[in-house]
Amino acid sequence: MTRDGIILEARGLTMRFGGLTAVKEFSAAFPRGSICGLIGPNGAGKTTCFNMITGFYRPTEGQVFLNGGPISGRPPYEVCRAGVARTFQNIRLFGNETVLQNVLIGGHLRQKTGWLAAVLCLPAHFREERAMRERAMELLDAVGLAHLAGEQASALPYGAQRRLEIARALATRPSFLLLDEPAAGMNPQETQELMQFIRNIREGFGLTVLLIEHDMKLVMNICEQIWVLDYGETIAQGEPAAIQSDPRVIEAYLGEECADA
Amino acid sequence: MHRSTAISLNVLAVAALGLFLWWAEGALDGYKIQILNLIAVNIILALSLNLIYGFTGLFSLGHAGFMAIGAYVCSILILSPAQKEMLFILGEALPLVQEAHAPFLVAVAAGGLAAALAGLLVGLPLLKLGDDYLGIATLGFAEIVRVIANNIPRVTNGALGFKGIPDYANLWWNYGWCVFTLFVVVRLLSSNTGNVFKAIRDDEIAAKAMGVNVFRHKLLSFTIGSFFAGVGGALLASLLTTIDPKMFLFTLTFNVLMIVVTGGLGSITGSVLAGVGITVLLEWLRFVENPVSLGGFELPGIPGMRMVIFSLALICIILFRREGLMGMREITWSGLGGLFARKGGR
């Protein structure tokens, strides 16, 4: 594959906390427009990888490149500005704000008029905020939450909160979206809908998606490339069919005896 | 509700306030007018602290420090050079202090700007700190300001402070600044910048992930809040006509904090209501500090008793109604309209 086809690349990412190596030399290249998966048993270092890519952790070693330019070592808000957005394993919405306000906050980093324009009541400010509200409503429409725009975010049902978190991430206009366990706590029906939803937003917003997920059915169904972590090391990488039959993956998930059998 | 309707209602409300002040100026005695003045100043102070603490979630206990800076800068500017020559008996005033003179509007704005500058400089190192640590550090800052004021007699006249500060701060000035503060705070918080402040309060990590430069916005909120704290302090100096370092003890911050918590952290209308209510109550409760006779018993007046009562009240609020009067809700025109429409319909 040519370099042009790679949107985000991790090179030898290592994260040590004191004596503990949470992730060791994680390298991956994510093809533009693909849906990729990052799987592994609990504590394998998946979320740590996310935190390194999005700037929440500064990797002990290694670098992250977005469209060929380095982004590691930059603070999260700059990484987000560069086009990398994320959601969280345990949903982190702005609970006291309305659904619409949550999405507007996501749009803030593309806003041109600042606080002074707001205080001075400049027409440009009102124009821009109106345009932002319209765009936010479009996004909410796309995730099927437009009718709940005025509700307080913490009052939404669980599935809707997940979708709102994705809508909020989309409002930052990312080119690369990281989803941390998007199907956690969903029933099979909801997971099915989520799968379709992820495919839709990939098409609709021209995204590349990287997701962490424990629901194997979802991962195998939707992902084109999968990376498997165990105790911080990458033990396998490839297409879903290859991953499913990889003995090391089976061992990591089910234990050694099963792999032998 | 339509925007233009809301704007005209706001204009009407300001006009009504103006009419009330015009009436009050002629009809009320000096004591009552003084209470009205204190209400305006307290609302300004409460709004400024609510912006910092209630809306951005920065636990700051440094308000007395910013108020002191505003009060001293404003006083130095409005005291006439002749007055200053009389005042500075501990040591001659520095030439800059001696010569400085400005009209009241400029003096109050300068007080606010000086406080804002202090807020910016203090915020740069301190706003990296988390909740409780920020509280302790800002408390320390306020104490440092007070100690400095005590120890630079050629600028602040030391422990003696200033007396005979011109009493320019009448109803019109105080309520003018109060409406201006309200306007700025409302405009700020109803814009997307306000949403970002609230996002930082609700979940700092999520705000970072959404591309918010958290530190920059904390600094912005803190600096604007400090500006209005300085304005409040400046007006207070002219209102009381006398200031000294002892005035800016922690109790001053506590008074403002009490109004903000009672009104509701994160509610503008709550701060306004509590600003009115608590200022009036504080005056009304003065009777508990006077000797009272209860069925033949003569109870001696205990100075400071009303602060005891208020501290108890604050404890009760935190125990039983932590969100304060209004919580994070606001009274809006459309909300009021809805209330009347429902009543009318029945």
In short:
The complex is a heterodimer of chains A (261) and B (346). Chain A is an alpha/beta fold.
What is the CATH-assigned architecture of the largest domain in chain A?
3-Layer(aba) Sandwich
Specify the biggest β-sheet of chain A: 6 strands, mixed
What name does CATH use for the topology of chain B?
A: ABC transporter involved in vitamin B12 uptake, BtuC
Tally of domains of chain B: 1
Low-confidence stretches of chain A: none
CATH architecture of chain B: Orthogonal Bundle
Distance between the termini of chain A: 37 Å
Distance between the termini of chain B: 22 Å
CATH C-level category of chain B:
Mainly Alpha
Order of helices and strands of chain A: EEEHEEHEHHHHEHEHEEHHH
Largest sheet of chain B: 2 strands, antiparallel
The total count of helices of chain B amounts to 16
The tally of domains of chain A stands at 2
Describe this entry's structure for a reader.
The complex is a heterodimer of chains A (261) and B (346). Chain A is of the alpha/beta class and 261 residues long. Chain A folds into two domains: 1-83 and 174-261, 3-Layer(aba) Sandwich (Rossmann fold), CATH 3.40.50; 93-169, no CATH class. Chain A is 41% helix and 24% strand. Chain A has helices at residues 46-53, 76-82, 99-107, 115-119, 123-142, 158-171, 188-205, 216-222, 240-244, 247-254, 256-260, and strands at 6-17, 20-31, 35-39, 61-66, 69-70, 84-86, 176-180, 208-212, 225-230, 233-238. In chain A, strands 6-7-8-3-9-10 form a six-stranded mixed sheet, with helices on both faces. In chain A, strands 2-1-4-5 form a four-stranded antiparallel sheet, with helices on one face. In chain A, a hairpin with a 2-residue loop joins strand 1 and strand 2 (20-31). The longest helix of chain A is centred in the middle third of the chain and has 20 residues, at 123-142. Chain B has 346 residues and is mostly helical. Chain B has helices at 3-27, 30-55, 63-78, 81-87, 95-99, 104-126, 131-151, 153-156, 171-190, 192-202, 204-209, 214-240, 250-263, 268-284, 305-320, 333-345, and strands at residues 292-294, 297-299. In chain B, helix 2 packs parallel to helix 9 (171-190), helix 2 packs across helix 13 and helix 9 (171-190) crosses helix 10 (192-202). Chain B is globular. Classes of the chains: A alpha/beta (261), B mainly alpha (346). The A-B interface holds A 54, 56, 75-77, 80-81, 85-86, 88, 92-97, 101, 104-109, 111, 114-115, 118-119, 121, 125, 129, 132, 168-169, 171-172 and B 184, 187-188, 190-193, 195-196, 198-199, 201-203, 205-214, 220, 266, 328.
